[in-house]
Amino acid sequence: METRSDTPGDTRHSGIPSTGTPRGRVRVLHVITDLSTGGSQMALWTLLSRIDRDRFDPFVVCLKNGNTPLAEEIRSLYVPVVDLELSSPQRFSRLLRLYRFIHDARPAIVHAWLFHAVFASRLIARMTGVPIVISARRNINLGSPLREKLNRWTAGLDDRVIAVSEAARRIEIGRTGVSAEKVIVIPNGVEVRHRIRSCESGRSGFRSRFGFPSESRVIATAGRLHPSKGIDDFLRAAAIVSRRHPEARFIIAGDGPERAALEQLSIELGLAPRTLFLGNLRNIDLCALLTGIDIFALASREEGMPNAVLEAMATALPVVATAIGGTPEIIEHDVSGLLVPPGDVGALAASIEALLENPAKAAAMAIAARHRVAESFSIETMVRRTQDLYEELLREKFID
After folding, report:
1. To which CATH superfamily is domain 200-376 assigned?
2. What's the pTM value of the predicted model, to 2 decimals?
3. Is the dihedral of CA 48, 54, 60, 66 positive or negative?
4. Where are the domains of the chain?
5. CATH class of 26-189+379-396
6. pLDDT digits (tens, 9 = 90+) for 254-281
7. Closest of 20, 77, 71 to residue 53, by C-alpha
8. Long-range contacts from 375-378, C-beta under 8 angstroms, 24+ separation
9. Which residues on neighbouring strands pair with residue 109, listed in sequence order?
10. pLDDT in tens, 277-320
11. Do domains 26-189+379-396 and 200-376 have the same CATH topology?
């Protein structure tokens, strides 16, 4: 199969090779708002790391922030990354660069991630005659009424919308009015193999590394330090837990605009000696962190499909999480984890305590969690379903 019979035009401004896509390979252009740290960015990297390169020829264009560690990791996969350096992507006059890129690249498929990239790609891909346009719906809330309106006005330009969860799918259909058949669910995928919890000596070493007592029980959360992630609720629950379990220690992995306020809150709650803020997730070996802790907790007020919960479950950790967005689609309550109402600090604390006080139950949930992820949320499943969607749309468009 050849995606376009003609050779791409002048690519001096696009950064892509001018020789075209080799015969039999389908050129897929991924457009993303930026390549900073985030769930969408990591999902893109995961897909690119496993996509069938004999079949698909991927490229990436980001509207801004294309000189990041993640961008370099993508380039190390031999996937070209072009940064359009649009500091204000909402300014239509500056999107001429994206028009030129898509025109020159001549992809068979444009797959867009995050609001600004999705909005711009829908319009420009159709203007340049791209046969297949796909967008990703990964958030429950787009952030403003204006964004919701723009999404609704342009959603009909997509051939498919990939929702990260059934919750995200229902919201997309309800808010845009697109046909249900057009919105499909492909959940996140994580690596499941080669994840083994640390032995007791390894766990002791983990605690020593962070200055925790050897007998401490460690509860961690991870994510961007943003109000939607409910880290303040995690800290308030931690304060309750620490009263009955003085051996408990708490780790917060991630960074963001709320960090200073959250660190101050930990001081006010008397948690500072028991709490560690690790900083940016890109600087953390999350797998190593998860294999050294006892419980993972997520207090989010808003989620599409929390990667951090999948990572914890894949590591065979007992998990407590808020029943929000796509999280209940991952966790079966009281089987593969515990679910609590969002904003209910008391319930969050009680669930953490229940796992601390019943190690046998915690261990059984951890095993069930790992099996759940292996069956339904592996990287292989996510990549296969995405490739199947590409093939389905190529057949629909009669691209040979």
Report:
1. Glycogen Phosphorylase B; (3.40.50.2000)
2. 0.81
3. positive
4. 26-189+379-396, 200-376
5. alpha beta
6. 888 899 999 999 999 999 999 999 887 6
7. 77
8. 376/187, 377/187, 377/188, 377/189, 377/190, 377/310, 377/313, 377/314, 377/330, 378/189, 378/190, 378/191, 378/192
9. 28, 132
10. 988 766 666 777 888 889 999 999 988 888 889 989 998 999 99
11. yes
